[in-house]
């Protein structure tokens, strides 16, 4: 059977098809976009079968009275490849220096950093639906979902160089209940263990909250390092680094970074060193908007807390926090650590005084304080609460890039 007319990528990947068709597989769109990003290399074979099925479902939706075979769907897929244009802001390199996978990808902080160094992302996973939307508009790729499912893990291709994972930190965070491995989210590290054990990447590159080091009197961290070294045979390096001291970003953000090398593949792993501190030359004003923002971000004089805010928030050169009953000023003139709690409402978002009043940081400013190139990075039209949560959950991209550069020097 011949196709009556051309079927476009918009029809296969567009909103009408997405919202009106109940797919037989939750992996269709992810496999389809991963295939398009990798059709020039062997990685595409990991996604081809499901990508064809995704196109077949689109054809059946467009032509409900026709019966389409997998052969016809594959022809349509090849046609789409011919017309495919990578118009996302961060499509990734055609030719790469190394390959990596992006687990617990969030909004792509690891991906931007490693792509800047010539890396090619060959698999992405993120379970949060809103974060996936932000990821898609910026990278032209839909992340696979829940990485704890074996079906999701089966899509991971063989032969990648670096595993990146800013695995969920709520279980270890001071801001949470600190249940650690007693919390289901804390056990996600063991999904990383399974993937490393199967695929044996040259490098494992992890990020988490500083409190992971001291949680449960250090036992949680010891389990992670012991698993990497004694169970998996990797050589590990770990250090707490601050975005303000190591990335020239005016945010006080301390995070633990773990870099683990497979010594059988990376003989000179001992040469790895974390980046040295660099002088902070930027101020908060390099990350703040200059013009007046939407009124929703400003505190009006009639607000119950306005008298306290007006009395305390007097400097335009630092960032403040509302701490339940009082305002705390950052004495170092930095932005305090951005957290996912910003998305919970209330007064969790850091505060500033600008020329127009007292207001919360905007989501765009929070993305900027995480190192995102906001002149290019697309912030989609989502609820501000979701955007705040995405920024707080993210990594500081410029710090990740400095560490990754040290990794690549060893590779």
3D architecture notes:
With 411 residues, this protein is α/β, with parallel strands linked by helices. The chain is 34% helix and 13% strand. It has 3 domains: 9-83, no CATH class; 98-280 and 393-410, Rossmann fold (3-Layer(aba) Sandwich); 284-376, no CATH class. It has helices spanning 9-13, 15-20, 28-38, 48-62, 70-83, 109-115, 129-139, 150-153, 189-199, 219-231, 243-246, 306-312, 363-368, 384-393, 397-410, and strands at 98-103, 119-124, 162-165, 203-209, 235-242, 254-261, 320-322, 327-329, 351-354, 357-360. A 6-stranded mixed β-sheet has the order 2-1-3-4-6-5, with helices on both faces. Mean pLDDT is 90; it is low at 15-24.
List the helices and strands and how they pair.
Layout: H1 9-13, H2 15-20, H3 28-38, H4 48-62, H5 70-83, E1 98-103, H6 109-115, E2 119-124, H7 129-139, H8 150-153, E3 162-165, H9 189-199, E4 203-209, H10 219-231, E5 235-242, H11 243-246, E6 254-261, H12 306-312, E7 320-322, E8 327-329, E9 351-354, E10 357-360, H13 363-368, H14 384-393, H15 397-410
Parallel strand pairs: 1-2, 1-3, 3-4
Antiparallel strand pairs: 4-6, 5-6, 7-8, 9-10
Helix pairs in contact: 3-4, 4-5, 6-15
